[in-house]
Write a structure and sequence with these properties.
- This protein is of the alpha+beta class.
- It has three domains: about 160 residues, Glutamine synthetase, N-terminal domain (Ubiquitin-like (UB roll)), CATH 3.10.20; about 400 residues, Glutamine synthetase/guanido kinase, catalytic domain (Creatine Kinase, Chain A, domain 2), CATH 3.30.590.10; about 130 residues, Four Helix Bundle (Hemerythrin (Met), subunit A) (Up-down Bundle).
- It is built from 22 helices and 17 strands.
- A hairpin with a 4-residue loop joins strand 16 and strand 17.
- The longest helix is centred in the last third of the chain and has 54 residues.
- It is globular, with a radius of gyration of 28 Å.
- The two termini are about 30 Å apart.
- The structure holds adenosine-5'-diphosphate and magnesium ion.
Length: about 700
Amino acid sequence: MKDIINVEEIFAENVFTFGKMKEMLPKEAYEEVISVADFGGELSKKTANIVANAMKEWAIENGATHYTHWFQPLTGTTAEKHDSFITHPDKDGKMIMEFSGKELIKGESDASSFPSGGLRATFEARGYTAWDITSPAFLREDAIGTILCIPTAFCSYKGEALDKKTPLLRSMQAISEQGLRIVKLFGNTEAKKVTASVGAEQEYFLIDRDMYLRRTDLIHTGRTLIGSPAAKGQEMDDHYYGCIRERIGAFMKDVNLELWKVGVTAKTQHNEVAPAQHELAPIYETANVATDHNQIVMETMKKVAERHNLTCLLHEKPFKGINGSGKHNNWSLNTDNGCNLLDPGDTPNDNIQFLLVLACIMKAVDTHADLLRQSASNVGNDHRLGADEAPPAIISMFLGEQLDDVIKQLIETGEATHCLANNHLETGVSVLPDLLIDPTDRNRTSPFAFTGNKFEFRMVGSSDSISDPNVILNTIVAESFCEAADRLEAAKNFDEEVHNIIKEYVTAHQRIVFNGNNYAPEWVEEAARRGLPNLPTMLDAVETLTTEKSIKLFEKFNIFTKAELESRKEILFETYSKTLNIEANCLREMIKRQILPSEISYMNELADTVNKGEKAGVKISSAINLLEKVNGYSTKLAESVDKLEVILKEARAIKDNKEKAFAFRDKVKVCMEEVRVYSDELEKITDKDFWPIPSYSDMLFEV
Ligand code: ADP
Ligand code: MG
């Protein structure tokens, strides 16, 4: 029997879609929902009750016993607390399941146990979750049963954002308002909103679960803290797009099914560059839903992997010496009447609206390069950015040949009179068609690359929420749109003013454009000459959140208050120290309780051999030499781990959050590297039977 998957039938079967609402709700209620989803406002109490009831009926019919307000606190993951639909049984002991509009719209939770960076104290712990009507509720089925998940925003009693969703929704409102002003100026008076659309390509590793469970570092930190490279790495380029192994294929098939059921448009799957590394990309959707869906993708991957006795690693750098994982955030702006503001058309030089949008984006990215860089930083990404596999920590834009040429004409003459056209690629083989090629090649090394009708922000870390980068993109572009719109709305001669703005912006901000190789060391020097910020690590970028420039930007568009920014900064410093503290603890434990004891046993065995040889009158030089080497490295390893303990204690004792984080980076992390060097040297010369944990070769090639 063929195993036929009817995707059309199963797609979104576990989602309370607008389509289902249309079928189930009275017309007025449905229209109210659509209006609030599209243009904001509040549902009436009556309608909220009607929607809640329909949602409950549908959920229970599909097996749900509980509902949850599903939200995204500042831990970067998701949070949920389940409530069943049960109520007091009636007099006859019969159970009636209930779910009110109030329960749908608002939830209460203890905010003090989530990171708040000082916004909440434990004595004022109230936090609220509020239904995000723009992101559909869905049913999650797993061992616990079926749970109705309602995407929500999470705020404090005073309305301060304690999550990733609230600022994203605020930024989408800002870009919509400012984007509308721009398209209206160009005659599009029909458009009612401008939506940021996002498609996030997700990279990940899969390894055997039994091996994973034998590595304390992977369990506690998501990455290998020690491990010497396998004989083979990624140098043959034979994994990228390679044939997908059966076990991985079975995993991918299950992931797709699960995702389709909850309405995630899983589209593309392939093997990535590093051994055991893969990628999944969905079709783009509104930034808010894309962000929720990316969380679902990550959760689903982790869950499904377990079913296949695999473990999915989402850390940015699980293995040293081979590529880490990122998340390419593809971003564009679209009106509700079908215009992509980032689509240049065939002749971008004639497309004045596009040129203005592009100029505004150049201005935004150049002015706020520091914030964009910050938005892609997390502890794990520090291991990845700036290595040979990912963009450096310097923001620049890739426009490609065609747009670069248009920009040059604008700067030189103030006019763009022509553009490089599409070409045909002659395959030279009569049975193959000649291909119409894009006017622009790709630049895989650029952090922010124009790819036809969208920008691809390639810096984001694989484990991170994509909320932050999109909050920044939406907000910084809203600002430059706003400035341009202010001028254009007041202009006496529109054509002249738009022309002036474009020329002014592209000239003033041309330094942000870089089409060359971002991985080359020369770029670091060139970027410094251009005065572009280079913020090599996460900690270097934290303060960008609270510069005068940033506070002004965020307050102007009501994205963050100063207090919210300060709180996020505190959380970042805390997170850094906590993460490094766990890593250092874990390393210490592995060395003291696994590696050193194993080496002592190994030395015992070697010494036995040497002694036995001596007794037999033979000097076993290989064993003697090896024993000396193992002893030498083991001594150094023991000393370095003792040193780590001292340094760690000192770092932990620091009170100030910022100072503490820097001590972890500059002292603890450096010392951890030293420990690793001795451990990795030992691994290379230790009998495999004595090495207590799976090696890189075991984990990466035995999947
Ligand atoms: P590329 O090969 O250029 O990376 P893909 O077609 O593979 O392009 O798309 C990568 C991701 O970008 C996908 O998630 C896709 O849905 C998304 N994407 C495509 N067009 C847009 C757009 N206009 N806006 C936002 N994301 C887009
Ligand atoms: Mg891509």
